[in-house]
Amino acid sequence: MIRHSDLPRELNLATWFVDRNVEEGRGDRVALISPAGKTTYAELALLVNRCGNLLRELGVRAEERVLLALGDSVEFVALWYGAHKIGAVTAEAYTFLQPKDYAYYLEYTDARVVVVDETTRAAIESVAGGRQILVVDDAFRERLAAQPDELEAALTTKDDVALWKFTTGSTGQPKGAVHLVHSPVLSHEWYAR
Predict the structure, then answer these.
(1) Phi and psi of 131, rounded to 5°?
(2) Quick check: pTM over 0.85?
């Protein structure tokens, strides 16, 4: 079983879970199955790079938060890994919340960019203030297609902050539980496999 001490000091979630599969010859294997169809590791790697480049274009920098408030999709996965590839920190919000709840998450995370889909768009637009909103729609897909295919991974370490997972709020307001880069890797190794 892999341990924290077995992991390399420099560790980026996108390179570990996506790029490594391409580099090790699994680019044509299916990474995701969704209502849109199958996505291979090579296809996902390309989307991750384009998403990371788009987030950088929007001004997202290493260690800054990106709030994802959209349904499960290939775009969600590519944006999540794209944010990690540039060294940003992801936080996620449910898609069925009220505007006041989204206002709380926006204030709490101080996210530079919030990513929405049509399910969450109106509620978040009503409370976003001056924050940038990236809507996953046809215009997003066109903009994504224009992004460079290549993206160098940020130098992150296994002990850098990677994501904030929110508690349910059963004892008050939800709180962001901070997870380090190594957490998803070890969770995958110890549990998912």
Answers:
(1) -70, 150
(2) yes
